[in-house]
Specification:
Order of helices and strands: HHHHHHHHHHH
Number of domains: 2
Largest sheet: none
Radius of gyration: 23 Å
Helix content: 55-70%
Shape: globular
Strand content: under 5%
Distance between the termini: 75 Å
Structural class: mainly alpha
Length: about 280
């Protein structure tokens, strides 16, 4: 699937910065930034495009080896079994028994997570800009955590045909993975954590938290479907998704804590600057 490369994203970020600078110079001083849309959107697009470029560059680092990946994959399978989690293999076998479902599952895995995230970010920016930074920061922290953990290599279930797993996406011709660890859109051995599930959680939980419409619950199945899809395609273990969601929750909690601390500091600053009443006694 032809997703943008890191250098294309970098160029897009540079162009957006130039657009932002131009719009900033043209905006009348009497018009506050809060009443504009294009100027902050250009800056935000530059920021997101830069993060995407870093994400694509990270997989090119020489740390991306296959050492220990197979062993860790088997360890995760054993841990899940000891936790009595349902087998990913049973889900895949159910999907394979229905050709239309297997095809839809493969396409969902390959095509939905990035467009859904971009549409969500745009919707949140234009409709709920007050809440946008919170969810964008949670997304950044979650993705950064995934990038760090990915260097502890973990093989996904599809690398274990001896356990019965099949590479569903390759079978239906929509695999995002190349023939080796350095080629393809996504990393072969970056199963832990699942960025697919982490980003889907941002979309589902973000819409539910920001919107007041009763229809917001329609988007909750996105993260559920994504979790089922990554397992059915044998691209991730259940625990890959669990860790990704945990990273998102940590990211949101960190952002909330930082905002509360800043708010408390701002609230305390005016009080410290108020002069003492004339004639007030000094403490003994």
């Amino acid at each position: 699937m032809p997703w943008p490369t890191w250098d294309q994203a970098a160029v897009a970020a540079l162009i957006s910065i130039m657009v932002w600078l131009g719009l900033r110079s043209l905006r009348p001083s009497r018009v506050p930034l809060q009443q504009t849309h294009l100027e902050p959107f250009a800056l935000e697009f530059a920021f997101v495009a830069s993060l995407y470029a870093v994400w694509r560059l990270a997989r090119m680092l020489p740390l991306a080896t296959t050492t220990g990946a197979m062993g860790r994959g088997r360890d995760i399978a054993s841990i899940e079994q000891s936790m009595h989690l349902p087998s990913e293999l049973s889900l895949q076998q159910f999907v394979l028994a229905h050709d239309w479902l297997a095809t839809a599952t493969s396409w969902y895995y390959a095509t939905v997570h990035v467009p859904a995230l971009l549409v969500f970010l745009a919707w949140m920016f234009f409709r709920h800009r007050d809440q946008y930074p919170h969810w964008r920061n949670g997304l950044v922290i979650c993705t950064a955590g995934c990038l760090v953990i990915r260097f502890v290599r973990v093989a996904p279930p599809r690398f274990f045909p001896d356990l019965g797993y099949e590479d569903l996406a390759s079978h239906y011709g929509v695999s995002v993975y190349g023939p080796d660890v350095q080629r393809g859109i996504s990393d072969q051995f970056a199963a832990m954590p699942s960025i697919h599930v982490g980003w889907a959680a941002v979309v589902s939980l973000g819409i539910i938290a920001a919107s007041t419409s009763v229809w917001r619950w329609v988007f909750l199945p996105h993260v559920v479907l994504t979790t089922l899809v990554v397992a059915a395609t044998a691209n991730h273990w259940w625990l890959d998704g669990v860790v990704a969601v945990a990273l998102l929750l940590v990211g949101l909690a960190v952002d909330t804590a930082v905002r509360r601390r800043r708010a408390a500091r701002r609230a305390a600053e005016p009080a410290a600057d108020v002069p003492a009443p004339v004639g007030a006694e000094l403490p003994s």
